[in-house]
Amino acid sequence: MNIVDLSHPLVHGAPAFPNDPKLAIIPHGTVATHSYNISQVLIGTHQGTHLDAMFHFFDDGRTLDQMPLDWFYGPARVLHLPKAPNTEITVADLHPHETHLTAEAKIILNTGWHRHFGQPDFFTSFPSLTLEAARYLASRRIRLLGLDTPTPGRQWLELHHILLAKDVEIVVVESLANLDALPATFTFAGFPLNFAGRDGSPIRAVAIFDQ
After folding, report:
1. Which end of the chain is less enclosed by CB atoms within 10 A, N or C?
2. CA 190 to CA 207: how far, in whole Å?
3. Of the candidates 4, 42, 1, which has an alpha carbon nearest to the alpha carbon of residue 23?
4. CB neighbours (10 Å) of residue 2?
5. 175, 48 in Cβ contact below 8 A?
6. Residue pair 50/205 in contact by the 8 Å Cβ criterion
7. Angle at Cα 156 formed by Cα 155 and Cα 159, nearest 5°?
8. The domain at 2-8+45-209 falls in which architecture?
């Protein structure tokens, strides 16, 4: 069995999406001072590899603790859609894969942008899902959309409103890593911390598959 880490490491001072809190990991005690090492973490709920709850954009949307656990775990498929900076992911890109875009499917888009993580352009020049492509995915009733970009696209407000809407409720996972190491199909696991009543959480996403 292989287990591939799909999460970027959390490092003190790591960049965050514009206007989000910055990550701080602060030593609080050491073996010398407390007889054990312990750290204080200040982190936004959408730092690094994370997922969005519906409440992220809708006051009446599901919060993390209201989302079924099976939404975060199960068979998944990666779609290879290589994209250059500032390009679009369109309906035409998705159509060849429509047999896999079925109700409750967990779909991961590998644009190659995960290789830009930590670079200055990661939050500025990422490939962008079009509104039409988001509506198409919503119409297919998939359950989870995983992305290697920091947000679905430059029209992030409208895109989230499409994907997280009450009659759609697609789990949006952002900033995935190591997607080139995946086979076409695998088991995805990416559970959020159980922040009661909240909007999202960093996750330790992994892919599990047979050798």
Report:
1. C
2. 9
3. 42
4. 13
5. yes
6. no
7. 85
8. 3-Layer(bba) Sandwich (3.50)
CB 86 within 8 A of CB 55: no
- What pLDDT sits at residue 182? 97
CA gap 163, 185 in Å, rounded: 23
What's the pLDDT score for residue 148?
A: 98
Find the distance separating the first CA and the last CA of the chain, reported in whole Å.
Answer: 5
The total of other beta-carbon atoms located within 10 Å of residue 142's CB is: 20
The 8-class DSSP code of residue 142 comes to -
Contact between 11 and 26 under an 8 Å Cβ cutoff? The reply is: no
Which residues make Cβ contacts (< 8 Å) with residue 191, sequence separation at least 6? 69, 72, 73, 203, 204
List of E strands, the chain: 2-5, 24-29, 38-42, 50-52, 73-80, 88-89, 106-110, 128-129, 144-147, 171-174, 185-189, 200-202, 206-209
Q: Residue 115 contacts by C-beta under 8 Å, 6 or more apart in sequence? A: none
> How far does Cα 60 stand from its chain's mean position?
21
> CA 137 to CA 131: how far, in whole Å?
10
Distance CA 75, CA 62 (A): 23
Both structure tokens of 114: 């995960």
Mean pLDDT in consecutive groups of 10 residues from the start of the chain, 211 residues: 97 94 96 97 97 98 98 98 98 98 98 96 97 98 98 98 98 98 98 98 98 78
> Which residue matches tokens 């490092």?
11
